[in-house]
């Protein structure tokens, strides 16, 4: 098993491509996207029944090596500060 970081990002769906561009820039090529999630946070209830991507949230997660994580963390922090959203980082073990 190998120690890695799991990065979970919840953003407005209109920003998915920007997050994926950030991943690509840092050579993170594997990820999962779950569209139209719903929940309640600091901005109130977000429902999953939006007709367009405007106002709906999506969940993106990836697992990467510590070095790649360290190279991208400030970019993710800037992104969240500029566009909103949440980023959760967890130490994980990857079974290969």
From TrEMBL:
Organism in which the protein naturally occurs: Malaciobacter pacificus
Protein name: Uncharacterized protein
Any single biological process term in GO: regulation of nitrogen utilization
Gene Ontology MF, one: enzyme regulator activity
Matching InterPro entries: N-reg_PII, N-reg_PII-like_a/b, N-reg_PII/ATP_PRibTrfase_C
């Amino acid at each position: 098993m190998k120690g890695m970081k799991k990065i979970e990002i919840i953003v407005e769906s209109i920003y998915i491509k920007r997050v994926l561009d950030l991943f690509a820039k840092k050579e993170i090529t594997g990820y999962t996207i779950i569209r139209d999630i719903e929940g309640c946070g600091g901005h109130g209830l977000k429902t999953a029944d939006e007709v367009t991507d405007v106002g709906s949230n999506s969940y993106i997660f990836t697992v990467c090596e510590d070095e790649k994580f360290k190279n991208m963390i400030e970019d993710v922090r800037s992104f969240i500060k500029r566009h909103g959203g949440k980023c959760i980082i967890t130490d994980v073990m990857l079974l290969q």
